[in-house]
What does this fold into?
Amino acid sequence: MSRGSGGGYDRHITIFSPEGRLYQVEYAFKAVKAAGVTSIGVRGKDSVCVVTQKKVPDKLLDQTSVTLLFPITKYLGLLATGITADARALVQQARNEAAEFRFRYGYEMPVDVLARWIADKSQVYTQHAYMRPLGVVAMILGIDEEKGPQLFKCDPAGHFFGHKATSAGGKEQEAINFLEKKMKNDPEFTYEETVQTAISALQSVLQEDFKASEIEVGVVRKEDQVFKVLSTDEIDEHLTAISERD
Amino acid sequence: MGDSQYSFSLTTFSPSGKLVQIEHALTAVGSGQTSLGIKAVNGVVIATEKKLPSILVDETSVQKIQSLTPNIGVVYSGMGPDSRVLVRKSRKQAEQYYRLYKEPIPVTQLVRETATVMQEFTQSGGVRPFGVSLLVAGYDDKGPQLYQVDPSGSYFSWKASAMGKNVSNAKAFLEKRYTEDMELDDAVHTAILTLKEGFEGQISGKNIEIGVIDSKRIFKVLSPSEVEDYLQEVE
It folds into this structure.
């Protein structure tokens, strides 16, 4: 059977391989890992926190423009892990969609609706040959009116799940092992505990202490609902608290 | 469809007359989590494994069994994201039917329209087939019905069927246990026993999902505690 393997195109576009796999989607996951950055997200009792490494490859770069943490609306945040350019494109579309939702329906787009929208868009790229999947894993955070704090993760395959805690990027598996131990008995973390768990998870998998300027932290809290990126001073407070605790 | 540069089909015949992309799609289904359905005299039950990648995943955020209309439900085996597309399209088609005829769509019609969508993706330009098989359970004027739709777009009505990883064992089990006069409660027990056969690990209300529809014609996904009750009865 000469065309048994799809003529070798199964590695170039998203058609099935003989084992029923989509190689392009799998390669997109590899691209996320290859970016060399790890991100962590933790959901507490009344807050959600996401943390990521801030790798500034050149000292001449303006550090404030290097970011993977984006507000989508006042109340929703998105942490992208993977190819920065793909992340920016996704964020732009997500911002547009969230704004249209608010206009069309008269209330703020809920977290899971945005997550589903992003996941459905990613699925289209896995089924249509004309667009490649995005090399981004997106973590969406926000406070849901009915369900409370929510953390969703969307991947290039179009999967999305709600998470109590999760990780993405280069050291994803080590981070998830660390978090599984911490979250085993369904603890209900306070805001401080949530942030500190997220930061210490990152410290533990990277096996180094870092300065406040080397990480980005985004939070959303039930008491004020808005998505906030922490300033370097605020991050410093948490880092100090962690080192004192240990 | 007919995406820009891809105005040619990616699913083409091999020299032996096979459509290999569809075969590969079926392989993708065969590596998916097991799901099954059983038609009883007074209703239908569909069930699936719900194995999540980590304990960190919030299982309440995931629902694999979905309703398409108040009296029709569906479960899939294969690629979750693909199933979401089909569920969305089917729901829209059901609503369009209702708008036109002011009657709820019969199960056979909805199955046919969903199958047509799946077939289109095996022939249109620049797309690949869906990597899911669906089990559609419904109750309408013709009584309880169970249909299986494959990535090729072909569908059949079944008394009982299974799909996914454990398909051969599950089907063998169902063939032994199925009786024509089965009632819905028995069918639920049989469904649980069938899932249990190939289940790795401890089965509980949190890692399986069960959907039922009875003569009241309302499709319902059982809550984890209701599933636990049935599990206790089976012990």
